[in-house]
Amino acid sequence: MSSMPSAPSAECTVVVPVYRNAGNIAPLLARLGELHARVPGGIELVFVVDGSPDDSHARLAAALPSQAFAAQLLLLSRNFGSFAAIREGLSVVRTPFSAVMAADLQEPIELIEQFFAQLRADRADVVVGHRAGRHDPLIDRLASGLFWWSYRKLVQKELPPGGIDVFGCNDAFRRHLLRFSESHTSLVGQILWLGFRRLALPYVRQPREIGQSACTFRGKLKYLSDSVFAFSDLPIRLFTLAGGLGLLASVLLALIVLAAKLSGAVPVPGYAATVLTILFFAGINLLGLGIIGSYVWRAFENTKARPLAVVMATVAEPVATRM
Fold first, then answer.
1. Helix H segments across the chain?
2. Which pLDDT value is given to residue 272?
3. DSSP per residue over 103-148, as a string?
4. Which DSSP letter does residue 316 get?
5. What angle do CA 55, 56, 58 make, to 5 degrees?
6. pLDDT digit string (tens) for 3-12?
């Protein structure tokens, strides 16, 4: 890890996780230099190289001393994933405002500038960028649209259309976000769960000019499953619903089979008893799994050690002096 002296006037920090982005380093630094010149007081940078197998770290280490902005360069011991890299970057932020952006330059630099403008004007505690469109191949657009549609339906309905890839926040929000110590979870889910004053800004995702995305279908599926299990009890509720419906269906079918048996429509000995037993206990099993799962979910929620409530602001009125 290496660091550069910080600029005392800077109030804003950009955290950039880096993985397989060696080819993007030069244009990335150039765009960040433009951002540094446009943001009042300039910016600081925190680059987190997430165990990248290419020479991203070496290129950054060589280029950063000559940049106009102050920077910190962190190298993780292996690839822990972008979520972990972002958390490590946010943990060393030294300014009142911070933002996270990807190193592939698919999010416009102007969006980060808008984040800081909104945060400095105190219009929000967290500003997120959601995709209003994207210049990607059709198959990528369809896959992304399906992913974020599933996320909204299964995890958090308040997710902006198009999903969230980048965000900016003030120091209070950043500190609360770092209180989460969960693994196998969702950064987007944590941002939405915290609440605070949130503002969503639309942007058009730019085409990737250099390299290929390291995000695979398997990775997206894992991210979605982690998000569901970390922020939703939907699977348990579906089990409970299926059990209740199954139990109701077994009762209705039992009446039908019993009526058929009494009318002589079922001549096979033992058929009615067998069918009634299977239907009844199948419904009971599903319902029982749902109930047990509800208790397990509550125990699982407690192991996360999330705060029961988050105080966003405190106003203490002065005590009137008694005469």
1. 25-38, 56-63, 82-91, 109-120, 138-154, 171-177, 187-194, 217-231, 234-263, 271-303
2. 64
3. TT--S-HHHHHHHHHHHHTTS-SEEEEEEEEE-S-HHHHHHHHHHH
4. -
5. 65
6. 444 444 688 9
